[in-house]
Amino acid sequence: MTKDEAEARSASIEKAGEDSIVEEASVMPVIAYGGEEALPPPPDFTPAQVKALYRKIDMQLMPILTLMYLCSFLDRGNIGNAKLQGLLTQLDLTGNKYNIALTMYFVPYCLCECPANLVLKKFRPSRWLPGIMMVWGIIMTLMGLCKNYPQLVGTRICLGVAEAGLFPGVVYYLTLWYPRHMIQYRVGVFFGGATLAGAFSGLLAFAISFMSGTAGLLGWSWIFIIEGLATVVVGFVSFFILVDFPHTAKFLTPEERAYVVHRKKYDNSSVGEEEHFELRHIWETLKDWQVWLHILIYMSVIAPLYGISLFLPSIINGFGFTAAISQLLTVPPYVFATGTLLWWAIWSDKLRMRYPFVLAGLVYILIGFAINISNVSIGAKYFGTFLIVGGSYASFPGVVAWLGNNLAGHYKRGVGMALHIGIGNFGGAIASNIYRTQDAPRYILGHGIELMFVGIGFITVPIAVLAYKRINARRDELVREANEKGERLSPEELRRLGDRAPDFRYTL
């Protein structure tokens, strides 16, 4: 390779080739990347062929992953619907017992997410993800047979442990398949399962409520049992549909596998990412300032998201509607959120920017909670719930994709995203305790604390943007100076530096 060719190769795909969807690196890999040594050389696909390839991958991965997350979010959030179907009275959930039951889900859920991500590649996604799904489906079914408060808390703890591996695992899994500026739309489609779960939850709860009294069980029991059994079925089916990694994907031709692996390898770096695990990856992640800043950004969105998800039926019930009508009225806000989420995800990937959509979501949430904390008409408050649900759900994929875009190296990204999601989800634990029964129907305390989280977002998002712009500009200058002096880092040094390498550019 000539010196000119080496210099051309040193710019990353991210920086040097954003106008073309099919740009390829010309250097053969120095290290094996996900089975690359067993694949043919990557082909030169046309834009139409690339589009068809990723559509093929979408059709294989996204339907089953979305269905799995729909079941996951349905199972963790249906307790809000069960609350209106006799759960409180039969299990004697007086005082703050209901809030404690909600909180006990989040503690193991947050603590187990990082370890779950580290074992994902070891146990293979096609076995690990369906396996934990069947486990939590069984737990959810048994929750419908609880006879007292301690049993409910125990099953909620077990549910948190079992579900912990799904969301961070799938987000990390998707980053192994898609380039970083194609990822938010896929995370959006996947997370769309959560918004659909919000809509289905109300409809299913309304329909299942008519089973109250069947076999001596109240409506809340049947909500847990039926939705838990559905999860077990989906988990079993996913064993036969879900695939592992690009280099082992039998639904792709060898040439297609080579293209996906090669493009992803050089997506974040001009010399490819590190794939082998070292303990320093964990230490470097813990020392990375952006991980901790993004945890605050995550909390600013996830606390409103969980607050509205778990308590929307109760909030609408406080408007003066019956339990059955309240269940039905939860559906339209989630339909609105689903459309907004997909629109923003497509737009964000097209612009290759994340922060404008995170800020837009925070504005929606701010207006929605400001309306609901005020003494206004029921119609206005119901309109406000559309903004809260839409803003929180639509901005969330961007929050997750943003950090994933800006971490380089398989294991650093996996650990960083698990910490991001795991610690950030403690915002959900806080949200579980701020909507107290004695504060109904206005829930001034709950809405006020949610507004505090939104304020945190309005502080941390601009800080992240300004920091990224400053670092990118400094790296541009360093690269120019190095080129003028003829100084170059070796491929091994660049791989080791990862997202701290001079050729890496942060996504805004």
Comma- or semicolon-separated keywords:
508 residues, disordered N terminus, 22 helices, single chain, mainly alpha, 71% helix
Overall description:
- With 508 residues, the chain is mainly alpha-helical.
- Helices cover 71% and strands 0% of the residues.
- It has helices spanning 3-10, 13-16, 47-77, 79-82, 87-90, 97-123, 125-143, 149-163, 166-175, 183-208, 219-238, 254-265, 279-287, 289-317, 323-329, 331-351, 355-373, 378-405, 410-424, 426-431, 444-485, 491-497.
- Helix 7 packs antiparallel against helix 9, helix 7 packs antiparallel against helix 11 (219-238) and helix 10 packs antiparallel against helix 18 (378-405).
- What are the low-pLDDT stretches, counting only 5+ consecutive residues below 50? 1-33
Percentage of residues in strands:
under 5%
Share of helix, binned? over 70%
The biggest beta sheet reads: none
Radius of gyration: 23 Å
Whole-number mean pLDDT: 84
Distance between the termini: 34 Å
Shape summary: globular
- Order of SSEs: HHHHHHHHHHHHHHHHHHHHHH
- Total E-strand runs: 0
Summarize the structure.
The chain is 71% helix and 0% strand. With 508 residues, it is mainly alpha-helical.
SSE order and pairing:
Elements lengths: L2 H8 L2 H4 L30 H31 L1 H4 L4 H4 L6 H27 L1 H19 L5 H15 L2 H10 L7 H26 L10 H20 L15 H12 L13 H9 L1 H29 L5 H7 L1 H21 L3 H19 L4 H28 L4 H15 L1 H6 L12 H42 L5 H7 L11
Helix pairs in contact: 3-10, 3-11, 6-8, 6-9, 6-19, 7-8, 7-9, 7-11, 9-19, 10-15, 10-16, 10-18, 13-19, 14-15, 14-18, 14-19, 14-21, 16-18, 17-18, 17-21
